Amino acid sequence: IKNEGILSSYKNNKENFIFDLAQVIVEKSLACRLYLQAKYIKIYIDEYQDCDKSMHKFFMYLCDELKIETFIVGDEKQSIYIWRGAYPEAFKSIVGKPNFKKIFMGDNFRSCQQIQNYSNLLCKETRHLYKPISDLNNIIWLTPNEENWASEVLSYIKPDFKTALLRFS
């Protein structure tokens, strides 16, 4: 391990030596491989979009070489750790593999439809997920002229709906 430079300090802060080290140990130690196969029959990995290349390589080794069933959850559009080396492109490399199955999860229980629509409109790949809503309460952001702001607001108010108007000066 020392000869391979794994224990030396990394100059690039986006690299994670822990998973590189784990990879070398698992590859070189039959006892380690047998232990992992006996201990873990399945691995569940959440927020996979935030894995870096070393993590991805290690997890794929566990799956492909050690045949440990792997369940991955994530959304490549939500990767927030690119600054530290996250590798959201890993999803694309996994989807083409014959031993992986992609399941699209269309229901979002964390956010209301208005927020989902706003988020979906931001990404070209998800614009088709926009769902028109008419029976929900609305939040409307206006920046009307000072002179006619009242008449502009009236055009958005519907008597049967609760509407929040946010006015910024």
TrEMBL record:
Single biological process term from Gene Ontology: recombinational repair
Molecular function terms from GO: 3'-5' DNA helicase activity; ATP binding; DNA binding; hydrolase activity
Organism: human gut metagenome
Xref: Pfam families: UvrD-helicase (PF00580)
Protein keywords: ATP-binding, Helicase, Hydrolase, Nucleotide-binding
Domain UvrD-like helicase ATP-binding, chain residue ranges per copy: 31-93
Record-given protein name: UvrD/REP helicase
UniProt xrefs under PANTHER family: ATP-DEPENDENT DNA HELICASE SRS2, UVRD / RECB / PCRA DNA HELICASE FAMILY MEMBER
